[in-house]
Design brief:
Number of helices: 12
Strand content: 15-25%
Helix content: 25-40%
Largest sheet: 6 strands, mixed
Low-confidence stretches: 1-5
Mean pLDDT: 86
Number of strands: 12
Strand order of the largest sheet: 4-5-6-1-7-8
Length: 321
């Protein structure tokens, strides 16, 4: 039997090696913002925008190459342990000791947090009730659902009653009913604590927080309430117009008669015409469109204006250049 000699693995060329050399990346650039007591703040950004890195810096988990985080005039690089006592942190990848029972895990966390044994029972029962864990307190974490595991992580972040709560994707894995419960809990916590939460669920952020900070490529691109972000937006309003008894010439002439409208599309259906119109939010033409339709003897089946929502603003601010 003839055996082939073993193949030797070719060494990468120096040019190929250069390709795989790790290049420095600026995850966060010149971010500066203040957080106040009794405020729930949403922290938004696309994947890779620097959200989790910022949260890890704020908790003292990693150190910035420049800049600092201050909590009541103490900076986190020189007073890490002292500040961390006042912070509850739920990271995006929820770290749990899955071989432990829920009760034992929370007792373990409470000891790390310096909670006295005589105070554990009340602290434990409080977070179990708030996070809805009564059904699983004696269950092994590995045998809990993803939603329960997320709630266990939240309970661990809250058990020492921190003044600052930092939550990275806190509703991941929860069903709609659980999301509503956690939303209510976060809003209640926000009355007495500083709560900073990141999420990809924009509707959840809009329903939960008092203020929204959006970052893109490591920099802040928006900061304010959802109402102020929507009102400050310079985008146009879209109008869906559905009519009967129209003709193409009259539709084309509408732009000349009503200069504020921009006809984006016209589609002919079997029984009606669908017209998509765009106009400046400061120059509402709907009254003029109605008068024009009456003059042309159109039958208006539908006239619906669609204003920009938070998702539109987020996409405009975070889209790739």
């Amino acid at each position: 039997m003839i055996r082939r000699p073993p193949r030797s693995t070719p060494k990468p060329s120096s040019a190929a090696s250069d390709v795989y050399k790790r290049q420095p990346v600026k995850a966060v650039k010149s971010i500066s913002f203040d957080l106040n007591d009794g405020q729930v703040v949403g922290f938004l950004g696309a994947n890779g925008a620097g959200k989790s890195t910022t949260l890890k810096i704020m908790t003292g988990y990693i150190s910035p190459t420049s800049g600092n985080v201050f909590v009541n005039d103490l900076n986190i690089q020189e007073n890490t342990s002292e500040i961390q006592k006042d912070i509850g942190y739920l990271p995006q990848l929820n770290p749990l000791y899955t071989e432990m029972r829920v009760h034992d895990y929370l007792r373990f966390i409470s000891k790390i947090r310096g909670i006295a044994e005589e105070d554990f029972k009340s602290a434990f029962q409080k977070v179990v009730d708030e996070c809805g864990l009564n059904a699983v307190v004696h269950r092994t974490i590995a045998n809990c659902s993803k939603g329960y595991k997320q709630r266990i992580g939240l309970a661990a972040a809250m058990i020492h009653d921190p003044k600052i709560l930092i939550l990275d994707e806190p509703v991941t894995g929860l069903d709609p009913n659980q999301i509503v419960e956690i939303r209510q809990l976060i809003r209640e916590l926000g009355k007495e604590k500083i709560v900073l939460m990141s999420s990809h669920i924009l509707q959840e952020i809009q329903a939960t927080v008092d203020r929204i900070i959006i970052i893109n490529e490591g920099s802040i691109v928006a900061d304010g309430s959802s109402e102020s972000l929507l009102s400050d937006s310079n985008s146009n309003t879209e109008l869906s117009l559905q009519v009967e008894n129209d003709n193409e010439d009259d539709i084309s002439d509408m732009k000349a008669v009503i200069p504020s409208v921009d006809i984006k599309s016209i589609s002919k259906e079997k029984s009606h015409t669908q017209i998509s119109i765009e106009y400046s939010k400061n120059n509402d033409p709907r009254s003029d469109i109605f008068k024009y339709a009456v003059h042309k003897e159109w039958i208006i089946l539908e006239m619906v204006a669609t204003k920009q929502n938070l998702e539109d603003i987020f996409r405009n601010l975070t889209k790739s250049n």
